[in-house]
Design goal:
By secondary structure, the chain is α/β, with parallel strands linked by helices. It has 2 domains: 189 residues, Cytochrome Bc1 Complex, Chain D, domain 2, CATH 1.10.760; 134 residues, Cupredoxins -  blue copper proteins (Immunoglobulin-like). The chain is built from 10 helices and 11 strands.
């Protein structure tokens, strides 16, 4: 993209150069030559300025398009936090309703289909006169949302599809997925609902709820805190550990099995600060601090910082199932666990 300031400077420099040439020509040529040179220089100025202005206009349109998209996604996240998270999950990971964040079936729908489904809802083909599988949200069909608001929800859903963002010229890197904005929107506007949603999202974080990465053969391990990849259920950041089966690669997992004596180092590679704080039980929405380990709210793990902890015997005996659950005090939905062995 062309910087408008650089383009403006270029135009000024061009005009100064042309002005100097005009001065030379007008001071050293006769009337006929002056007229010819003047016309030639004017045509040169116009030929230079037209593409510059065209580039500036195109650049401005691209910036405006991206800004509008970001605004639509943010508004969509706010609407989702108001109307949709109860069914589709706090970050679109699915609850009683289908998954919207990174669902390949949803991504494969056409724009018209997504807008139609949000607007008019879906009825069960086997029971067309019964309760809809998803209600109609458009005010044209008795719902609470205007067509503009429907468009905002559409932008939110599409923000979870990197291929769609790239194809339409929108940023597709970290932070482009609007579902990562939903927890903060809900927390800001309805703290009680936020705490309930977090409790639901973190329910069942025991060993049976997700695969355990066995690192008991390692005397020291690193757990990276990374920005949530597109479509990932862990929001707004994920825990990643070395993949035991593929050296040099990482696997996203909130549960790691380690031995007493193992040194664990958490490294924040995400764009936001975090804490690593052990709790009693498994509920990050209503945490009870556990004096096992805590990086500290007053000494945040900012980007690039790390926190080491050597697993002690008290971690093994802390719970009868030998599992220590921890979370981020800033982002309570980030719940993980250490399964301790001796």
């Amino acid at each position: 993209m062309i910087d408008p300031v650089q383009a403006a400077v270029g135009i000024v420099v061009t005009l100064l150069a042309v002005g100097a040439l005009l001065y030379v020509f007008y001071s050293r040529t006769n009337a006929v030559e002056k007229t010819g040179y003047g016309a030639l220089i004017m045509l040169s100025i116009i030929s230079v300025m037209i593409p510059v202005f065209w580039i500036m206009e195109s650049n401005g349109q691209a910036i405006a398009k991206t800004q509008q998209h970001n605004t639509d996604v943010q508004r969509g996240a706010a609407l989702y936090a108001q109307y949709c998270f109860q069914c589709h999950g706090l970050t679109g990971q699915g609850a009683t309703g289908p998954k919207l964040n990174g669902n390949s079936a949803v991504n494969a729908l056409t724009d018209a289909d997504i807008l139609r489904i949000i607007s008019a809802g879906i009825y069960d083909p086997a029971n067309p006169g019964g309760t809809p599988l998803m209600p109609a949200w458009s005010d044209q069909y008795g719902g609470p949302l205007t067509q503009d608001q429907i468009q905002y929800l559409f932008a939110l859903i599409r923000s979870a599809d990197p291929a769609y963002l790239t194809a339409n010229g929108y940023p597709s890197g970290p932070g482009s997925n609007g579902f990562s904005q939903v927890p903060n929107e809900l927390k800001k506007n309805n703290l009680g609902a936020y705490q309930t949603a977090v409790a639901q999202a973190t329910k069942g974080t025991g060993i049976a709820s997700f695969p355990v990465v066995d690192m008991t053969k390692q005397k020291s391990i690193t757990i990276d805190i990374i920005d949530s990849p597109a479509g990932a259920a862990c929001q707004p950041a994920c825990y990643a550990v070395p993949d035991p089966k593929n050296p040099g690669q990482e696997i996203i997992s909130p549960n790691v099995k380690v031995k007493v004596g193992t040194t664990i180092t958490w490294v924040n590679k995400s764009k936001t600060p975090h804490t690593v704080t052990s709790i009693v039980g498994e509920n990050g929405a209503a945490p009870v601090p556990a004096k096992v380990f805590d990086s500290g709210i007053s000494n945040l793990l900012n980007t690039g910082k790390s926190y080491p902890y050597t697993v002690k015997a008290d971690a093994f005996t802390f719970n009868t199932n030998h599992i220590v659950v921890y979370y981020c005090q800033i982002h309570p939905v980030m719940v993980a666990a250490l399964t301790i062995t001796q």
